[in-house]
């Protein structure tokens, strides 16, 4: 029964989540994702949901080509932030973009925390905020605190 409840919550929220395409596109900043897949993964236009990739500059395209050509590089168990910090001199534009996007809460407890926070704010029908919940949400937003 617990599995069914979790599965129903997953089906209700994850497949239609408005940020899902962005979360999927962020995989591009993991070099193992780029090198392990097919040639289509190296097409920067495929990741246009990342705003910096929508209309990339010539310099960014040049760095992208270098990034996609680093296939012989050793990719052991390095942390992504360390990988991109190490690439800062070779790929400065792409490194700055990557360092912003790899910290999005894609698969961490902060996503679960946000679901819990929203569950306490939304009414039972999950469609309308009550006056009290709207007030709490505004206070949380402007004060940067959790309720």
UniProtKB/TrEMBL annotation:
Pfam entry (one): Dimer_Tnp_hAT
Domain HAT C-terminal dimerisation: 77-139
Domain of life of the source: Eukaryota
MF GO annotations: protein dimerization activity
InterPro entries cross-referenced by the UniProt entry: HATC_C_dom, RNaseH-like_sf
Protein name in UniProt: HAT C-terminal dimerisation domain-containing protein
Organism listed in the record: Rhizophagus irregularis (strain DAOM 197198w) (Glomus intraradices)
